[in-house]
């Protein structure tokens, strides 16, 4: 616990003070209500009561062992004075006051003093002293058995209180520490999650545009187009919620800001994993960390994925090589497989789905595509996109 | 009374389900997470169950003591009042005590309001019977062993109901006892000492128990808050914070619902004005949140998310300099803030934290080091009331000096820290 963990001892000390002062007041009340008969003994013991009250107050704040010992000694002395015949003691009222003091107020010190050998020894000595004093002081008014019984019940109950309070607090603190760890993990996850969501700028741009359009009743856009756009955006938001990092493929009629750059390496890895799952092992060579404007990145990535999809469907082999190189102006990807290949002159590239999905897309961002193949000797596609 | 066996469901050591439940709830949405957290807090009740069992154990001890006193009195030479009536009273008490203790176990430490009110009715009946039994005796309280049983039962109930209800019940009990003592005063042979002793031993245990359980609840709340605050210590320089993160997730979800509705046709085009206004406000909030991004430091989040610090601490840190503090310095600063505000007793101080402006460094070699002042202004706490542990905590942050003006004290700490993240 990095912050000060003083809650437990402080709580126990305050509880000791509460119990101590309550029974001290009751003891004093027992004397004060019988005042003509107990005037002498009251006059003598008032300073002692005041000192004990001060002691409990200080213990409540500092948990001082010295003050605990002082209160025990003062308490035993008070009990003895309450039993003095010369002061008019030894009556029913003084005995009650003595019992309340010795079996209620003094054992309250147990609550905050059971956590160290020195404290336990002090308390045991104090208990013995208080018991002896109680026996002597109450001998005239009540039977020894009753006073011992009261004493034992008081001290035993407070040992129980101390024990249960300590155990309850420890359990609560352990539980809180567990919740704290869960909270820390949650904070971490939330932060990552928020960063991921905020990082999905392209997505949020199109969502915001669609929402704004909806808010203005879709002026200028046909309901079907709007519905299609909403469906696409909702799908992307769902993907985002489920942990993906979707990129909008088209932005409908809106202009997207495309000035942000993103980390390519991370995205390439996800492409690789996707094809791994579909049964095509992709070996990766070359630079893993490239920065591209996001529209170029989009086109590059989708084309690359399309090339790999072609390999998976047509080549007849289960692995492909991707080599990525870059110079100051261009990023280049070479997708190679050792599959069946084809005759470039005989097979129209449009039939391979390359024309629209790869060539046009790369062309749009100012890049170019080259295709090399021959029957029986595999296929190589080279994609080149400008960096700026 | 075999109540000392382990409570209803002992929790497994690390409770592996907590995290996975949280993770699952996260996918449903932010509200599910907070609902789950409430649920967890209630579920375990953070040691209340254990505290309740302790109260039952100590209560049964005192109950048996009272029963013993009754038996001694009943078989004695001159039993006061009617013994059969007392037997009925004790039987009612036993039903109340045993019944509510057993039901508390069944309800995992909580007693439903119905059980509590039935117990209260039984206790009142027992007291009524007792009053009838002692009617006419000169000092009723000296012969009313039943009140021990009532006190013990009230103590046993202490862990399972809100402290307010118990204090109310204790108050009613105190009135009955005061009436018994008062009727003794009127009689000629009043013995104040033994009367006070009886009253105190019957009344004080449940009363103290209720106050202690209330204090326990406060302690638990404080510790929970502290552990939430501590989790900000490891945050990066700027972070979204839990609230903004939840907000972002919520807005995304709301947007998804509207778009989904439009796509599936359940929301008709063009939108009716209410839905359109909703879409517009979601877009506005989302835009603001995305533009605002991460400009708040860990300290800001710690204060904002804390129920203890939030209302009384104001933070001014326009440059986000608190984010430059390293882990140990953050800990020192947060400890000092916590000690100044949360741990002060009786008084409710207010604290203003002003961080910055950044010192201009003349020394070119110290380019990677930055310096700035952190000023803590405390109102409403006298100097001697401030926890001495504040000073060593601030030592970890930097050299500090204090100024006292009127009722407020300002502690200025000069921080010099290595700014790894401060490029430029």
Keywords for this entry:
heterodimer, A: 388 residues, alpha+beta, Heat Shock Protein 90, 5-stranded mixed beta sheet, two-stranded antiparallel ribbon, 7 strands, rod-shaped, B: 424 residues, disordered N terminus
Detailed description of the structure:
- The complex is a heterodimer of chains A (388) and B (424).
- With 388 residues, chain A is an alpha+beta fold.
- Chain A has helices at residues 7-32, 35-62, 65-82, 92-105, 117-138, 144-199, 201-215, 223-241, 264-278, 294-315, 354-364, and strands spanning 261-263, 281-286, 291-293, 319-326, 330-337, 368-373, 379-386.
- Chain A has 3 domains: 7-174, no CATH class; 201-241; 261-386, Heat Shock Protein 90 (2-Layer Sandwich), CATH 3.30.565.10.
- In chain A, strand 6 (368-373) and strand 7 (379-386) form a beta hairpin.
- The longest helix of chain A is centred in the middle third of the chain and has 56 residues, at 144-199.
- Chain A is rod-shaped.
- With 424 residues, chain B is an alpha+beta fold.
- Chain B folds into 3 domains: 45-221, no CATH class; 241-292; 308-418, 2-Layer Sandwich (Heat Shock Protein 90).
- In chain B, helix 1 (17-28) runs antiparallel to helix 2 and helix 4 (83-106) runs antiparallel to helix 5 (113-134).
- The longest helix of chain B is centred in the middle third of the chain and has 39 residues, at 192-230.
- The relative contact order of chain B is 0.07.
- Classes of the chains: A alpha+beta (388), B alpha+beta (424).
- The interface between A and B is large, with 90 and 102 residues.
């Amino acid at each position: 616990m990095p912050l000060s963990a003083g809650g437990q001892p402080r709580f126990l000390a305050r509880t000791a003070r509460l119990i101590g002062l309550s029974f001290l007041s009751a003891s004093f009340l027992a004397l004060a209500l019988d005042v003509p008969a107990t005037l002498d003994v009251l006059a003598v013991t008032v300073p002692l009561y005041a000192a004990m009250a001060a002691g409990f107050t200080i213990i409540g704040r500092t948990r001082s062992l010295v003050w605990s010992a002082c209160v025990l000694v003062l308490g035993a002395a008070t009990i003895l004075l309450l039993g003095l015949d010369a002061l008019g003691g030894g009556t029913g009222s003084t005995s009650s006051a003595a019992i309340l003091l010795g079996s209620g107020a003094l054992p309250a010190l147990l609550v905050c003093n059971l956590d160290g050998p020195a404290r336990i020894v002090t308390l045991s000595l104090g208990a013995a002293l208080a018991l002896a004093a109680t026996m002597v002081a109450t001998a005239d008014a009540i039977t020894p058995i009753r006073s011992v019984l009261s004493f034992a019940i008081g001290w035993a109950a407070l040992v129980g209180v101390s024990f249960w309070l300590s155990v309850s607090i420890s359990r609560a603190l352990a539980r809180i520490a567990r919740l704290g760890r869960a909270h820390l993990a949650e904070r971490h996850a939330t932060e990552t999650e928020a960063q991921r969501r905020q990082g999905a700028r392209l997505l949020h741009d199109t969502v915001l545009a669609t929402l704004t359009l909806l808010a203005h009743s879709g002026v200028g856009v046909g309901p079907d187009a709007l519905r299609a756009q909403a469906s696409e955006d909702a799908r992307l938001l769902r993907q985002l919620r489920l942990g993906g990092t979707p990129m909008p493929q088209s932005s409908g009629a809106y202009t997207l800001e495309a000035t942000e750059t993103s980390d390519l390496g991370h995205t390439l890895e996800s492409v690789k994993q996707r094809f791994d799952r579909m049964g095509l092992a992709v070996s990766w060579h070359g630079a893993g960390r490239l920065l591209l404007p996001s529209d170029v990145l989009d086109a590059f990535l989708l084309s690359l994925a399309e090339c790999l999809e072609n390999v998976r469907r047509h080549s007849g082999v289960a692995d492909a090589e991707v080599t990525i190189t870059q110079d100051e102006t261009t990023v280049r990807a070479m997708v190679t497989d050792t599959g069946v290949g084809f005759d470039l002159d005989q097979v129209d590239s449009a039939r391979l789905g390359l024309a629209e999905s790869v060539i046009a897309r790369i062309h749009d961002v100012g890049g170019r595509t080259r295709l090399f193949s021959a029957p029986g000797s595999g296929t190589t596609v080279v994609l080149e996109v400008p960096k700026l | 009374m075999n109540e000392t066996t382990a409570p209803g469901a002992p929790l497994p050591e690390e409770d592996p389900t907590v995290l996975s439940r949280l993770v699952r709830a996260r996918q449903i949405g932010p509200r599910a997470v907070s609902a789950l957290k409430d649920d967890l807090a209630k579920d375990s009740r953070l040691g209340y169950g254990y505290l309740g069992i302790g109260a039952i154990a100590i209560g049964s001890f005192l109950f048996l003591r009272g029963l013993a006193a009754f038996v001694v009195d009943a078989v004695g030479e001159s039993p006061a009042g009617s013994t059969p009536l007392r037997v009925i009273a004790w039987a009612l008490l036993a039903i109340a005590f045993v019944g509510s203790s057993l039901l508390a176990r069944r309800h995992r430490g909580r007693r439903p309001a119905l059980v509590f009110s039935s117990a209260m009715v039984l206790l009142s009946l027992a007291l009524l019977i007792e009053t009838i039994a002692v009617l006419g005796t000169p000092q009723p309280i000296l012969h009313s062993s039943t009140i021990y049983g009532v006190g013990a039962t009230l103590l046993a109930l202490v862990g399972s109901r809100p402290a307010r209800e118990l204090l109310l019940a204790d108050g009613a009990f105190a009135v009955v006892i005061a009436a018994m003592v008062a009727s003794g005063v009127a009689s000629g042979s009043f013995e104040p000492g033994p009367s006070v002793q009886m009253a105190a031993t019957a009344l004080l245990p449940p009363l103290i128990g209720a106050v202690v359980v209330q204090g326990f609840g406060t302690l638990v709340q404080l510790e929970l808050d502290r552990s939430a605050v501590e989790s900000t210590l490891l945050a990066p320089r700027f972070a979204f914070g839990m609230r903004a993160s939840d907000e972002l997730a919520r807005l995304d979800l709301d947007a998804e619902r509207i778009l989904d509705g439009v796509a599936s046709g359940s929301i008709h085009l063009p939108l009716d004005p209410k839905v359109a206004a909703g879409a517009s406000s979601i877009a506005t909030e989302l835009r603001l949140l995305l533009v605002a991004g991460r400009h708040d430091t860990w300290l800001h989040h710690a204060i904002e998310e804390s129920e203890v610090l939030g209302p009384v601490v104001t933070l001014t840190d326009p440059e986000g300099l608190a984010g430059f503090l390293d882990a140990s310095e953050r800990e020192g600063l947060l400890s000092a803030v916590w000690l100044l505000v949360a741990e002060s007793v009786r008084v409710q101080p207010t604290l203003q934290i002003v961080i910055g402006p950044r010192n201009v460094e003349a020394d070119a070699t110290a380019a990677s080091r930055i310096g700035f002042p952190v000023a803590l202004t405390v109102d409403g706490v006298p100097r001697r009331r401030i926890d001495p542990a504040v000073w060593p905590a601030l030592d970890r942050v930097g050299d500090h000096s204090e100024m006292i003006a009127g009722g407020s004290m300002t502690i200025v700490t000069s921080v010099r820290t290595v700014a790894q993240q401060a490029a430029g």
